[in-house]
Structure formats: C-alpha cells, structure tokens
Automatic annotation (TrEMBL), chain A:
This is Acyl carrier protein. The gene is acpP. Pfam families: PP-binding. It comes from Albimonas donghaensis. Carrier of the growing fatty acid chain in fatty acid biosynthesis. The modification O-(pantetheine 4'-phosphoryl)serine is found at S37. Pathway: Lipid metabolism; fatty acid biosynthesis; Glycolipid biosynthesis; KDO(2)-lipid A biosynthesis. One of its GO terms (molecular function) is acyl carrier activity.
From TrEMBL, chain B:
Keywords: Fatty acid biosynthesis, Fatty acid metabolism, Lipid biosynthesis, Lipid metabolism, NADP, Oxidoreductase. It comes from Albimonas donghaensis. One of its GO terms (biological process) is fatty acid biosynthetic process. This is 3-oxoacyl-[acyl-carrier-protein] reductase. Catalyzes the NADPH-dependent reduction of beta-ketoacyl-ACP substrates to beta-hydroxyacyl-ACP products, the first reductive step in the elongation cycle of fatty acid biosynthesis. Residues 7-188 form the Ketoreductase domain. Homotetramer. The active site is at Y152 (proton acceptor). PANTHER family: 3-OXOACYL-(ACYL-CARRIER-PROTEIN) REDUCTASE, 3-OXOACYL-[ACYL-CARRIER-PROTEIN] REDUCTASE FABG. GO terms for molecular function: 3-oxoacyl-[acyl-carrier-protein] reductase (NADPH) activity; NAD binding. Belongs to the short-chain dehydrogenases/reductases (SDR) family.
C-alpha cells in the first residue's frame, strides 16, 4: 500500500511539476494540484504503465484525488 | 528546411495518386514511412521504389477492427508514429434526392470515421513524445459544397471541424492538427473526365491549370515539419485560386 502510494505520488510530482508536500492523499488533481482535464488523462496513462494495469474510462472518471488513484490501483493490481 | 529525418509517418491512401506522392515527398525529406491502403500491390511497388525506410501496412478503412489495428501495426514496424496523414478518401457521387443510406455511410465511414479512429489511435504516443503532427487531406468542396457530393462534402467539412477541435485539445502538448484542402488535382481519377467538363472546370481556376499531386504533397510536408510548429487548426487551401477562402 505505501509502496503504491509512493509511486503514485512520484508520478504526480513529476507530471504536474508540483511540490512533493502538496501531493497528499486528499489532494484533488484539478482543484489542488492545477491539473487540466488532459493532465488527468495523461496521469491515468502514466499509472497504467507504471503498474501494468488497465484503467477503463468510467473508472478513470472517478479518480479525482491522489487517494482515489492509490485506492483504485491497490484494488486492481496484483501487487 | 522541412527536414523530417528521424520522423515516422503513417500515410493512408498511399496507393492513390495524391497519397503516393505525399509518401514520396515525406520520404524524400528523410522520414520513415508506413504506406497504408487496401490494394497491397501498388503499396509494395511504391515501397520498393522508395527503398529503405518504407513499410507496407495494408488496411481496409471501412472496417473498424482493421482501423483500430493500423496504428499498432505501423508503430511496431517503425518504432512509433510522429506524423499521421489522413489522406484516404472515397466518393459515391449521387444527387442528394437519390442518395442511398449506404452511399452516405460508406463515404462518412472511410473519409471521416477512420480519420477519427486513427487520430485517436496515434494520440497516446504523440502525447508522451510531446511532439506530433496530424495532417488530414480534405477538399475544397468541404468548404464550398458541390452538387452530387453531399456525402463527400460532409465528410470533408467534418474533417475540418474535427481537426480544429483536436488541435485545441492537444496544442499545449506540441501536437499540431491541420488540414490541406486540394482543389482540382490531376490524377488518374480526374484524367477520366470528359474534355468538355475539364474545360469548364479550368475556366473557374485563376491559375488556368489543374494542380499537381506534388503541390499537395509539398503542403503536407510543410505542415508535418518542425518549422510548422505554430500552425494548428488551420486549413491550407491548395487550389490555384479556385476558391479564395
């Protein structure tokens, strides 16, 4: 869990060029981290590659915070 | 100028007059090319005449599964796709009142829906690369309209609207999306027209002659080049002044 969380946060920091301490579990990509809608699509693409999973569009729409992403990936990756 | 060395271009309709010339010119500028079309033989001949850096990737653009597979096949052959040229097009001319649903659907599916699917298919790679060029070959009739071509004109106008929307979405990622709109171009298709009809058409063209496929290809090469990085959502009309729009 913490490993996934760290990897997710690293991707978010790199992709959105934001300070690491702002990337909390409750941080919203769009409202708190300045992402636009295309950034969120790119983040989902990056998560898919990092964790070797597929995130369907309807699931991607529900991933709005860092915590949402960690939760989805934890539940859908094999470890 | 317009050096495409190291760039990888997928061109649809490469077995046709304009598409073949686009492939030749992009290849001549240094690009690796994937030649797509339904007829394998002319594609293989073209690839042979180009030599290195040319791949044949046949595809039936009327078939959804075939279209979905094309970007993957082409990317595997070339190592990626930096440039997509949506050139393929079909006509099913008929007076509007007599036009069948089938003639409408076929033209929209090949000319517009396939371009949509291919553009979507190449987007992920271009987004990651922060560089990409999509050039769609539309037509003067997509802007002016033409009797007997309700389906064709709709598909070509659709390409322009689609390109502008996509251009707005991905401009910040270094990807440009543009159209080239040929007028009356000399190809095997237009050579078949009766002389009387040709004369009449030429009378409406200030340049006084038909265009050459090479003149379309040169415009595509410009829009595909690094130098055109600030041109996006545009339609470049190449028609000898036939319609100044």
């Amino acid at each position: 869990m913490s490993d996934i969380s760290d990897r997710v946060k690293k991707i978010v920091v790199e992709h959105l060029s934001v300070e690491e301490d702002k990337v909390t579990e409750s941080a919203s990509f769009i409202d708190d981290l300045g992402a636009d809608s295309l950034d969120t699509v790119e983040l989902v693409m990056a998560f898919e590659e990092e964790f070797g999973i597929e995130i369907p569009d309807d699931a991607a729409e529900t991933i709005q915070t860092v915590g949402d992403a960690v939760k989805f990936i934890t539940e859908n990756s094999e470890g | 100028m317009f050096d495409l060395t190291g760039k990888r271009a997928l061109i649809t309709g490469a077995s046709g007059g304009i598409g073949g010339e686009i492939a030749r010119v992009l290849h001549g500028q240094g690009a690796t090319v994937a030649l797509s079309g339904t007829r394998v033989e002319p594609l293989a001949e073209l690839a042979d005449s180009l030599g290195d850096r040319a791949h044949v990737t046949p595809c039936d653009l009327g078939d959804a599964a075939s279209v979905e597979a094309l970007p993957k096949t082409a990317a595997e052959a070339m190592g990626g796709i930096d440039i997509l040229v949506n050139n393929a097009g079909v006509t099913r001319d008929q007076l509007f009142m007599r036009m069948s649903d089938e003639d409408w659907d076929t033209v929209l599916r090949v000319n517009l829906t396939a371009a949509f699917r291919l553009s979507r298919g190449v987007m992920r790679g271009m987004m990651k690369a922060r560089w990409g060029r999509i050039v769609s070959v539309t037509s003067v009739v997509g802007v002016t309209g033409n009797p007997g071509q309700g389906n064709y004109a709709a598909s070509k106008a659709g390409l322009i609207g689609m390109s502008k929307s996509l251009a707005a979405e991905v401009a910040s990622r270094g990807i440009t999306v543009n159209c080239v709109a040929p007028g009356f171009i000399s190809t095997a298709m237009t050579d078949k027209l009766p002389d009387a009809q040709k004369e009449k058409l030429l009378g409406a063209i200030p340049a006084g002659r038909m265009g050459d496929a090479n003149e379309i290809a040169a415009s595509v090469a410009f829009l595909a080049s690094p130098e055109a990085s600030y041109v996006t959502g545009a339609t470049l009309h190449v028609n000898g002044g036939m319609a100044m729009i």
